[in-house]
Amino acid sequence: MTNNILIENQYKRTSLFEKENVNYLVRILKRFNTVPKINNINIITSTSEPTVFKIVPNKSIIIGTAFLDKPILALVYLRYGIEWQLWYKALGNDKKDIALCDIAALEVIRIFYNLLPKDDKEKLENLDFVLINLIKNSSNSSADPLSKIIDLQSFHGLKTANATINDSWKAIVDNLAKPTEYLLMAGGDLRLNIDEIHLLNKYGCRPFPRPEAFTFASSTASSVSNFAFDKTDKVRSILIRNSLKNGFKSTTIEFSELLKNSLRKIFKLNEECEIIFSPSGTDSSLQIAAITQTICQKEITHILVASDETGSGVAAALRGCHFENTTALNFPIKKGERIEGFRDVNLIEIPFRDENGALKSTIQLDEEVFAAVLKTKEEGRQVVLHTMDQSKLGYQSPSDDLIKKLNKIDNLSMQIIVDGSQLRLDPKDIQNYLNKGYIVTVTGSKFFTGPPYAGALILPKNVTKLIHSSTNPLPKGLTQYYNNSDWPASWFCSTKLSDGYNYGSYMRWNAAIVEMDRYYKTPILYRNMGIEMFCNFVEESIHEATFLEPIYGDETKMKSYNSKEFGIRNIRTIFPFFILHNNEPLSLDKVKKLYTLLNSDLSEQFEDASLEIIRLAAQKCHIGQAVNVKYTNDIESAILRISLGSRVISESWVNRDISLFFRNIELQMSQITITIKKIELILNNPQLLD
User: Fold this and answer.
1) What is the pLDDT of residues 349-394, one digit of tens each?
2) pTM, two decimal places
3) Are residues 506 and 641 in the same domain?
4) Does any domain span residue 87?
5) Based on the structure, what is the number of domains in the chain?
6) Where a domain ends, among 453, 488, 517?
7) Residues 6 or more apart from 240 whose CB is under 8 A from it?
8) 606-665 pLDDT, tens per residue?
9) Structural domain containing residue 300
């Protein structure tokens, strides 16, 4: 074959690079971050055979220019070819199971095709190509794979020595023959699904990198970073190889334990602390409800502090009720109904805000918590006190003084749960809580900007001892929510849960741990200076914008914590604000509309404006989702949030150069300025909000 050159050397003004094709080719290459990175596999284009698509095992992928004339088609074929090469490499030295490569790569590309934007799919609708036809005619490639192998073999020319399907393949294909971006939104619930136009989920982010957006949304959810995505994608390749070599079950168990041990290492936890992964922070609350029921003989009262600033489904979960209409294991259920096996419990909700929307004082909140605890004690019930260490708006309750007061009450049966879901905590904070016997809930998807829905419970030694001594099983209905593998192997109570593994949860935690690891690799001095530098700038910027009204005041420095050394709990890192137009707060609907517009390219709305305005309108700015908050007694509104995420620090330290570090922080501060300017631009064009 002649006239074949590597694609990266091919930028010549041929017909391939006519103006109308360039934008499409850019789209292909921009989205190549969702394609596995494989060493020593060359992508070669052929001009002599424009219709050729050939996989040379372990060497190259040859694609004709006829494919590149149709960039979306080229993307699909290249994604298939690279995936095939990935599985071929995973076979190791024994290359007889070529059929597995065909089956797995087709399954991956089928899912990949379904994740394409609607307009991309439309470009493929009327094309007659072998791979496209196989995808369209395949609802599930693993269901009838052998019939497709002959067609697929034409791509690589290898005859399979094994035309039968090995039973050991099924679990590997079912769990790992999926694009990494799909795995990052699997095993959660419907809120993780992306729309087919903008490829955004309910939280305004994606399960693959979105580098074009300015992202300060860590109080809600963030798109995965390029760095974490690549690391997680590499892990998928390793898991495939190890599963084929050592068996799927042992590989998966080893991976799960590796993740838990990584968390222990990051937060310097002792091995006696148990970690339970959960598909979401709300699922963690359901796990708490189940655990407390298992170890407590008394009737239970959950006292939920910050009930208005925790997850919307937490109250239902603590009552042992379904909080969505689908579980993480994809069981259809009915939201609000009692889950089988859960006892009746009492729930006392203590919101941060009063009926007028005003934030309660620390004293008032402490008094309400104290009264609720005393009432529960007098009733002879078990107190499960859910404290808040950083809510979605950056508040904590109750105070340390109140906890000390409660601990002095005689014969008080109380288990404290710390909602640390934002994870705006230092390792010493988590250690301190566990040493006191508190259960701590964390997520990897808030401050540490891992993909949304990476929850975990960290259980202290005293609680794990109680669980080991209990003979009560977990509520039967949890078989719809969790696999046995999600829970500690030594626990009797979880033995009757479902078989299987939640790879979505594992992969999201892997991405989160990658972010944690690189954050803590930033020297603590520069880390803390960078945090203060950035947060002080955000605070000042919001105060200076006349159309923004911050809802935080003197508590900014978190004075309720009397730490002598700097810690992330001692400084405000979440900055909530009302948005004003003509000195009046925007209505609830308009705040939500502005949030969506802020995260969108609006350049088409400003075609006749200056280049500066067009660029500002085009910039996507992702910040914390709207939270309903009364402006006054009579005005229903909502606030938005700008938040510090770990990437502000870790991505600034990428070159390990002090001067560059602070310069990189300043670059992200400039992104804050642009974000606020875009809010102003939208307000100055109120028709956009109609």
Assistant:
1) 999 988 888 889 999 999 999 999 999 999 999 999 999 999 999 9
2) 0.92
3) no
4) yes
5) 3
6) 517
7) 86, 87, 90, 172, 176
8) 999 999 999 999 999 999 999 999 887 778 999 999 999 999 999 999 888 999 999 999
9) 250-517
